[in-house]
Amino acid sequence: MSVRVVVADDQALVRTGFRMILTADGIDVVAEASTGAEAVDAVHRTRPDVVLMDIRMPDLDGLEATRRILTGGENEPRVLILTTFDLDHYVYAALSAGASGFLLKDVTPEHLVAAIRLVRSGDALLAPTITRRLVERFASREAGTATVHRDLATLTARELEVLRLLAQGLSNSELAARLHLSEATVKTHVARILAKLGLRDRVQAVVVAYETGLIRPAASP
């Protein structure tokens, strides 16, 4: 089944370039948008699988457009944020709003295609260690408290342990080795954590772990 994509960027050359790359690889670009408002409208009209969303756009920026697209409904698209800088402070806000990862605008064609297919399959684009770096830099130091947020009360002790380690950047295989479990069991724990907390992917789980105080941001140097 072909992947359906909306490309939102205020630069026509960027949109054209991405369309050519994706189309050449059998990915269907169902709409383009030059503003955040156009992106929201395009998503409602075309129901894509993935949205490539630029952060800085006129009329409505990519962050607010992402919030309006990801409202918690069924069959929502995955949003990949396009940015010029890998630690743009808007990226953290976009991840908190529900984006599944981010891409630098100078991404290679191969990486762009792989990223689209990865998030379409339900995974998150960012490695947990990169997400953690973003969260540690931009998460509010006041957001978490010493006590576990009530939303985490639904998790078992083992699931809390898995979430802590996941937020520290461990992969499934590393989690399995640390906890002396099979990778299949780890995947089951991760899936249950996401389901119980109503999260889309591991990126969101890392953000929640910091924002609830389960993990504390590293102290500034």
Protein described:
- With 221 residues, the protein is an alpha/beta fold.
- It is 49% helix and 12% strand.
- It has helices at 12-24, 36-46, 62-69, 89-97, 109-120, 128-138, 157-167, 172-179, 183-197, 202-211; strands spanning 4-8, 28-33, 50-54, 78-83, 101-104.
- The longest helix has 15 residues, at 183-197.
- 38% of the residues are buried.
Short description:
This protein has 221 residues and is of the alpha/beta class. Helices cover 49% and strands 12% of the residues. Strands 2-1-3-4-5 form a five-stranded parallel β-sheet, sandwiched between helices.
As a percent range, the share of strand residues is 5-15%
Topology as a string of helices (H) and strands (E): EHEHEHEHEHHHHHH
Oligomer: single chain
Helical percentage: 40-55%
The largest pleated sheet is described as: 5 strands, parallel
Q: DSSP helix count?
A: 10
What's the β-strand tally? Answer: 5
> What's the Cα radius of gyration?
18 Å
Distance between the termini: 49 Å
Any key phrases for this structure?
221 residues; alpha/beta; 5 strands; 12% strand; five-stranded parallel sheet; 10 helices
